[in-house]
Design a protein that fits this description.
The chain is of the alpha/beta class. It folds into two domains: 4-137, Rossmann fold (3-Layer(aba) Sandwich), CATH 3.40.50.2300; 142-236, Winged helix-like DNA-binding domain superfamily/Winged helix DNA-binding domain (Arc Repressor Mutant, subunit A, Orthogonal Bundle), CATH 1.10.10. It has helices at residues 4-11, 23-35, 46-55, 72-81, 97-105, 118-138, 167-177, 186-194, 202-216, and strands at 15-19, 39-43, 60-64, 88-92, 110-113, 142-144, 147-150, 155-158, 161-163, 226-229, 233-236. The strands form three sheets. A five-stranded parallel beta sheet has the order 2-1-3-4-5, with helices on both faces. Strands 6-7-8-9 form a four-stranded antiparallel beta sheet, with helices on one face. The chain has a two-stranded antiparallel sheet with strand order 10-11. Helix 7 (167-177) packs across helix 9 (202-216). The longest helix is centred in the middle third of the chain and has 21 residues, at 118-138. It is elongated, with a radius of gyration of 19 Å. The chain starts with a helix and ends with a strand.
Length: 238
């Protein structure tokens, strides 16, 4: 039986985060994205946008370049440096080839210049999210020991039986499992799983690792896969 939390993730409409300081444009985009079937969130400046980019778990970010505080390109660079793979569509009044290339080289998925036609923006949004769904469905299962992670279904099984994980437990497990043998510090795990500005402590990571061991390890007191690396952090051994 499918975990209700995973089912809810599958059934919810995609979330679009609009980071745009022009109030009229931002509110117009939010309204039209919602009418188009998306859940829409907005940020009016770079600082709020960066926080939401890490915390809101959006499926797509529509990102203005010229923003108060952090610029759009600074936000994009920070996301890619922290290996946050959420698709980003840049909105900019800068229409030169140099500006477009800079945005794409930093990791943007598309670049739309202002002024733009709304039907084109919605079509580009649909196309990016469609590609992302196809990529997710094509991602192979990850296995270690008797555990199997199915990214397409956001499900985990142990010895063929479904294991119910919270969203953060699942994201933490995937982070470690996608880079077997790599040591992640507690600070990096907090950044990558809980997001920018999270006010928890390293103990948060310890508690979640403990829970994962209890759910997935044959002997949680002597874990075979979810290993502690003294004074450094955690790694997953296949």
């Amino acid at each position: 039986m499918k975990d209700p939390s995973a089912q809810a993730r599958d059934e919810r409409p995609p979330t679009v985060l609009v980071i745009e300081d022009d109030r009229a444009l931002r509110e117009g985009l939010l309204l039209n994205f919602e009418l188009h079937g998306y859940r829409a969130l907005g940020a009016a400046d770079g600082e709020e946008g960066l926080r939401l980019a890490f915390d809101a778990r959006a499926d797509l970010i529509v990102l203005d370049v010229m923003l108060p505080g952090y610029s759009g390109l600074e936000i994009l660079a920070e996301l890619r440096e922290k290996q946050v793979g959420v698709p980003v569509l840049i909105l900019s009044a800068q229409d030169t080839l140099r500006h477009k290339v800079t945005g794409l080289e930093l990791g943007a998925d598309d670049y739309v210049t202002k002024p733009f036609e709304l039907p084109e923006l919605l079509a580009r949004t649909d196309a990016i999210l469609r590609r992302r769904r196809m990529e997710r469905q094509a991602e192979p299962k990850i296995a270690f020991g008797q555990v199997v992670i199915d990214p397409a279904a956001c499900e985990v099984s142990l010895r063929g039986r479904h294991v119910a994980l919270s969203q953060k437990e699942y994201e933490l497990l995937c982070l470690l499992a996608r880079a077997p043998g790599r040591v992640f510090s507690r600070a990096e795990i907090l950044d990558r799983v809980w997001g920018f500005g999270f006010e928890g402590t390293a103990r948060t990571v310890d508690n979640f690792i403990l829970t994962l061991r209890q759910k997935l390890e044959a002997d949680p007191a002597r874990p075979r896969h979810l290993k502690t690396v003294r004074q450094m952090g955690y790694r997953l051994d296949p």
